[in-house]
Design brief:
The protein is mostly helical. The chain has one domain. The protein has seven helices and no strands. Helix 2 packs antiparallel against helix 7. The relative contact order is 0.17.
């Protein structure tokens, strides 16, 4: 019975459990934050750098996708799952864009995009754990949520300017940097979970 539940769980959440796919985005965030933090004045003439970084991240993502297909196999998503992925992706993109614009135009004591990242950990856990609870995934979600949220709330706790201590020019960039690190750690942790649950295919 437990084996059947495990198989259904892995089949339904296979794409969400491919943690290494979060690595390109985490690296991209860190590198773009580093680039933005080093800018002084308008950066219109040097946008080629983040564009190249984005292309590199896309290439790495493609390689990782191939890695999972060749080492762990493929699961064909149902039309309902594909539709849900599109809806969640579009909705998440719109919400993140709105939060980014608000962060850039409003003088807020915290980062809305940081709140989005913190909430994303809870959302992803709820999606994955609908069929089967996992203490490991819960701990991973809780750690990511607490770290990103705590860093985001530091100005409200009287620690204005804390970002200068880590070499960042603003709270916004510092939150994104922390979110990038957490995303990398969560991705590697998620891959470790998948590799333990689903042995790699023999070459």
């Amino acid at each position: 019975m437990q084996d059947a539940q495990k198989i259904r769980f892995l089949a339904a959440n296979y794409s969400n459990l491919q943690g290494l796919k979060a690595v390109p985005l985490g690296l991209l965030m860190l590198l773009v934050v580093y680039w933005a933090n080093a800018q002084r004045g308008p950066a219109r003439g040097s946008l080629v750098i983040p564009v190249l970084l984005g292309l590199g991240a896309a290439g790495l993502y493609t390689w990782i996708d191939h890695y999972y297909k060749t080492h762990y196999g493929q699961v064909v998503s149902t039309p309902q799952q594909k539709r849900a992925e599109v809806i969640f992706g579009v909705a998440g993109g719109v919400i993140a864009l709105a939060a980014f614009i608000a962060d850039m135009t409003l003088e807020l004591p915290l980062s809305l995009i940081g709140l989005i990242f913190a909430g994303a950990f809870i959302f992803e856990y709820l999606r994955v754990s609908r069929q089967r609870k996992s203490t490991y995934l819960f701990a991973q979600m809780l750690a990511g949520f607490v770290i990103v949220l705590a860093v985001n709330l530091l100005p409200l706790l009287g620690l204005s300017g804390w970002w200068a201590a880590i070499g960042m020019r603003s709270h916004f960039l510092a939150v994104l940097a922390v979110a990038g690190v957490v995303m990398l750690a969560s991705g590697l942790s998620g891959h470790l979970y998948l590799s333990r649950q689903l042995p790699a295919l023999e070459a």
